[in-house]
């Protein structure tokens, strides 16, 4: 009875709400909560809690869990405010739960999939359902959606207060990143530069009313229309040709950091649209502000400075990874710096005052550049990496040496903990007419040859890397399985937590990397863990839900065995006093049963055309080479895809729209027939090396 009363009192006090504002988010203590995406404005993801530490973590046990069977991709950072945990799931569904018990308090579904189906028709293929997080400010929760809306929700009731459309309703831009809040302002970017002529930007809105305060574009538009500000006029001088017809890119899809000491916002901008600079900006140029950190005045959006990590980018590199703030002692001086580990494989320490690079060193295998010239701040490139006249095998790939998976920093150890991966990519545009190439709306349009084949499972490797930003060198490193392992959490208990692609939450000593504890969660983890405390009791929580770019498939991701519809997603919370157990869960799938009828005659010409069509659209969810990564069915093993009439109803008629499969109503019967033949061809090819299952009549 006493426990029940304490829970009721806690929830009653929760709905009175602390004043979550600039001071609260900047406060390292946060009354035991986790108030913002990176916990504080520093984005360090460091918890001062120390009850769970390197001496006690062996006793860490499951305290409670919440099954999320309707979810697929779970990439978000939960927030904890006054005993209530808030998080976003697949398709930006926001859920509030009691942080002590996991009991659901409310759920808000923005119906983003339905909005995509209504406004973009067949182009719902754009959405993996990814949402990397939410923001909290003065009793409201803010979330972005795949169809480009920003929604303010009453944190007590789960009822929307206001909604704004931040993107063109029928365009390819959508929101997957977490909003940030400061000064009664909420800011959000967007992504989608691979699917049309896209020009990136961020928009700031009033948290109370949803009224737009300012907008900043990351690349210049058509000069004939005039430039929005001096920064765009300056940037236009670094472009060639008619770049605006291709959009330019530069979307701000993940990294946004507010700096309360300077009252600035730092934007991490994305890759070019298309990737291939020879198309986007023939003749070269730096192409500002692609692949850059851009500093803006937080109140006006006015440009202050920028640092570009990849001038004239052409490899799908970007600076959309964490922008972390810290005070470091460098050359016997305290410096206010940004720490940044983008896709390109260099770790940057940058002066927050003026944007000048202080140091930059390789933290992963890098072949596109030899080093960063600290005098100019520019990379010293290998010219052959630009695939000007022949294909180029380059490290890292567009998956990045570090992607969006959050890194963390411990001021106690002075180390940054980075989820890294080493995956190469072959860049080749030999099949394209570069002068005539045009971006196709809602089709994969990056300006390089189509990828039609699977890659071997061992093409890449990954690790948890502890990096010393002062010495610019590795402190320790732990090899990890496969690729696409989760983000990290550092704590004052000398611990680093990380979820793995193989389905474990693991704790390491922060100073040495020694593994101290691991727990199987039943599915791969992409999201970063958090820590919070209530009444002096510390908790560790993580969303377990394989997703994001794993939808691209490949054996690199499929090797982990997380099959669509088989492995339930869940929210898990641990404590030293935990005594809960997980429901039984399926083991990873070790082999698929391919569906093939040996008597069926496959039309090789149609299959060849279908292979090309598949590489334009279907691969986005069903995987390169038709090797699915777990976010959608592997069509080689699908009985539905083996039934020609049913296949047509699904693809063209939208039979499975409610499950996330778009209706490609614009596809011709021939195109669907070609795709069907290609699926049958791939199933047979795979079945030759494995046991086949006869399709149902």
Textual characterization of the structure:
By secondary structure, the protein is α+β, with helices and mostly antiparallel strands. The protein has a domain at 594-693: Cytochrome c-like domain (Cytochrome Bc1 Complex, Chain D, domain 2, Orthogonal Bundle). Helix content is 12%, strand content 29%. The strands form 12 sheets. Strands 1-33-34-35-36 form a 5-stranded mixed beta sheet, with no helix packed on it. A 4-stranded antiparallel beta sheet has the order 2-39-38-37, with no helix packed on it. Strands 3-4-5-6 form a 4-stranded antiparallel beta sheet, with no helix packed on it. The protein is globular, with a radius of gyration of 24 Å. The model is unreliable at 1-16 (pLDDT under 50).
Looking at how many chains there are and whether they match, the oligomeric state comes to single chain
Unreliable residue stretches: 1-16
Beta-strand residue fraction: 25-35%
Can you give the mean pLDDT? 93
Distance between the termini: 59 Å
Question: Could you name the CATH homologous superfamily of the domain at 594-693?
Answer: Cytochrome c-like domain
**What's the helical proportion of residues?**
10-25%
Shape: globular
CATH 2nd-level architecture of the domain at 594-693: Orthogonal Bundle
The class by helix and strand makeup works out as: alpha+beta
| Largest beta-sheet details | 5 strands, mixed
- The total strand number stands at 41
Query: How many alpha or pi helices?
Result: 10
Radius of gyration: 24 Å
Placed side by side, the strands forming the largest sheet appear as 1-33-34-35-36
CATH topology of the domain at 594-693: Cytochrome Bc1 Complex, Chain D, domain 2
CATH class of the domain at 594-693: Mainly Alpha
């Amino acid at each position: 009875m006493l426990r029940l009363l304490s829970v009721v009192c806690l929830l009653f006090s929760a709905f009175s709400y602390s004043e979550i504002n600039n001071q609260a988010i900047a406060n390292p203590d946060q009354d035991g909560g986790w108030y913002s995406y990176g916990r504080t404005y520093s984005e360090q993801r460091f918890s001062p809690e120390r009850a769970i530490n390197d001496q006690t973590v062996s006793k860490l046990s499951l305290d409670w869990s919440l099954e999320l069977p309707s979810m697929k991709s779970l990439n978000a950072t939960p927030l904890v405010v006054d005993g209530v945990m808030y998080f976003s799931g697949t398709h930006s569904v926001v859920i509030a739960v009691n942080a002590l018990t996991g009991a659901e308090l409310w759920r808000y579904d923005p119906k983003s999939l339905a909005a995509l189906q209504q406004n973009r028709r067949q182009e719902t293929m754009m959405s993996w359902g990814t949402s990397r997080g939410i923001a909290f400010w003065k009793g409201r929760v803010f979330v972005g959606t795949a169809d480009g809306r920003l929604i303010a929700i009453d944190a007590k009731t789960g009822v929307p207060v206001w909604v704004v459309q931040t993107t063109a309703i029928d365009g390819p831009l959508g929101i997957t990143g977490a909003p940030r809040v400061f000064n009664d302002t909420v800011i959000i970017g967007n992504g989608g530069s691979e699917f049309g002529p896209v020009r990136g930007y961020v928009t700031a809105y009033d948290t109370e009313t949803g009224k737009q305060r300012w907008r900043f574009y990351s690349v210049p538009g058509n000069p004939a229309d005039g430039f929005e500000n001096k920064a765009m006029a300056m940037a236009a001088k670094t472009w060639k040709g008619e770049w605006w017809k291709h959009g330019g890119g530069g979307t701000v899809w993940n990294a946004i950091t507010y700096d309360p000491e300077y009252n600035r916002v730092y934007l991490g901008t994305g890759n070019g649209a298309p990737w291939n600079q020879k198309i986007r900006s023939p003749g070269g140029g730096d192409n500002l502000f692609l692949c850059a950190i851009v500093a803006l005045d937080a109140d006006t959006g006015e440009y202050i400075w920028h640092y570009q990590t990849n001038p004239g980018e052409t490899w799908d590199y970007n600076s959309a990874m964490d922008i972390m703030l810290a005070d470091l002692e460098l050359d016997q001086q305290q410096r206010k710096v940004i720490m940044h580990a983008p896709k390109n494989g260099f770790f940057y320490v940058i002066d927050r005052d003026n944007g000048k690079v202080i140091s930059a060193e390789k933290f992963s295998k890098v072949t596109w550049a030899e080093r960063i010239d600290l005098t100019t701040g520019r990379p010293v490139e290998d010219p052959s990496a630009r695939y000007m006249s022949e294909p180029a095998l380059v490290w890292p790939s567009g998956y990045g040496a570090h992607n969006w998976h959050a890194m963390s920093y411990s001021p106690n150890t002075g180390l940054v903990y980075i989820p890294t991966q080493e995956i190469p990519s072959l860049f080749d545009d030999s099949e394209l007419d570069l002068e005539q190439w045009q971006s196709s709306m809602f089709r994969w349009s990056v300006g390089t040859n189509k990828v039609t084949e699977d890659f071997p499972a061992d093409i890449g490797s990954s690790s948890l890397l502890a990096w010393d930003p002062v010495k610019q060198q590795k402190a320790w490193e732990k090899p990890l399985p496969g690729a696409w392992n989760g983000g990290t959490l550092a704590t004052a208990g000398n611990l680093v937590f990380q979820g793995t692609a193989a389905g474990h939450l693991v704790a390491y000593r922060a100073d040495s990397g020694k593994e101290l504890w691991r727990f199987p969660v039943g599915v791969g983890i992409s999201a970063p863990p958090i820590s919070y405390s209530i009444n002096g009791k510390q908790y560790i929580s993580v969303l377990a839900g394989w997703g994001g770019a794993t939808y691209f498939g490949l054996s690199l991701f499929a090797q982990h065995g997380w099959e669509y519809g088989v492995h339930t997603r869940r929210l898990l919370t641990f404590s030293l006093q935990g005594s809960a157990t997980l429901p039984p869960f399926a083991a990873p799938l070790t082999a698929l049963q391919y569906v093939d009828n040996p008597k069926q005659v496959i039309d090789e010409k149609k299959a060849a055309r279908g292979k090309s069509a598949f590489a334009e659209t279907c691969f986005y969810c069903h995987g390169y080479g038709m090797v699915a990564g777990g976010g959608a069915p592997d069509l080689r093993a699908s009985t539905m895809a083996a039934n020609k009439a049913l296949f047509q109803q699904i693809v063209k008629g939208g039979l499975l729209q409610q499950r996330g499969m778009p209706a490609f109503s614009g596809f011709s019967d021939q195109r669907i027939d070609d795709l069907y033949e290609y699926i049958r061809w791939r199933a047979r090819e795979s079945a030759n090396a494995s046991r086949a299952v006869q399709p149902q009549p």
